[in-house]
Write the structure tokens for this entry.
Amino acid sequence: MTATSLLDAIAGVGRDTARGGYSRHGFDTVEMELREWFIAEAFDRGLEVETDRNGNIWAWWGTPGPDAVCTGSHLDSVPGGGAFDGPLGVACALEAVDLLRGQGFQPTRPVAIIVFAEEEGGRFGVPCLGSRLITGAIDPDKARRLTDSDGTTFADAVAKAGFDPARIGADPQALERIGVFVELHVEQGRDLEVPVGVATSILAHGRWRFSFTGEGNHAGTTLLTDRRDPMLPAAQLVLAARQAAASVQGSRATVGRLRPIPGGTNVIASTVDAWLDARSATDAETKAVVADVVARATEAAEAEGVRLTVTEESYGDTVWFDAQLAAQVSQWLGGVPALPTGAGHDAGILAAHVPTAMLFVRNPTGISHAPAEHAEPADCEEGARALATTLAKLAG
Ligand code: GLV
Ligand code: MN
Ligand code: MN
């Protein structure tokens, strides 16, 4: 079955009629439906399916065990996201198994497709939660306490999905089975001009919550001189993010989410929460951009008599994928280009623990995390073939 036809089968799941695109979030009803879809596809192929204690699904071709050749991605999306970020890697993994079996390939190492939980952090705020948990990169207590926009904790969401929240956390036994991990992903920028490429690195990046607390009041009766309006420094934060990133070559900083409380048109907010996403080539540059933003936001808050608290919600240093493996994969694929990315991935979390590589499939729009994200069916096929070739070389 082609990756495109597999994606077609889930094209109706999780469409967001208000935002456009898809809203598929970790352990919500939509993502649970996608999980069922994946499990059914895996069963159809006779793969042995298990879900680890952090909610990551593993589908095994061969006996589960050490030194496995693993591939996979995720099925959740950002709010109003595209159809390819995540599901393309899962669909190509399924197709790669079909292609290899069609060729009569017999792996000498176990092969597994892994679907990671809550990669985007679209529901609980921390990206790559499934891979962070399994690798011990996040404290399970912190993960259990994360809440979604309705106030549901991650612990409750996990329990509702049928997992024991008390058992989430580092899982060396599961992790040790991965001998090598290769994630295929839609390219998310404008840098790939041929159908397939390999990844070199991921920018250092993280998320910070800025909570501005002022005084809720009436929009009509409160004189400007009497206000402590947290929306003013929040607005300055948005501008500060752009200014700070612009001053450090290659950096990006974004305020993509802002929550005024209580959020009424005729109400001066009492609190505004705003989230900064900052990314740069190095840890030092990222931290410098964030420090600059914090300084500017602090000054703006003080000028308005507003209290500011800044909380780091997630962080990951620059990832350098295994250069030897990347060069080898590129060579196996006929010398495809190698390129860095500004996007985070479960592969980036795993790279600190196991040899890891990524394949990218060309994105003609150069747009991602938005409905216009795209990959042509022919490129998806080339991606699936490239993944099959890579898995065969690794598991042959
Ligand atoms: C995930 O795709 C991210 O880069 O935030
Ligand atoms: Mn993404
Ligand atoms: Mn992704």
Remarks:
- The longest helix spans residues 283-304.
- The chain has a mean pLDDT of 98.
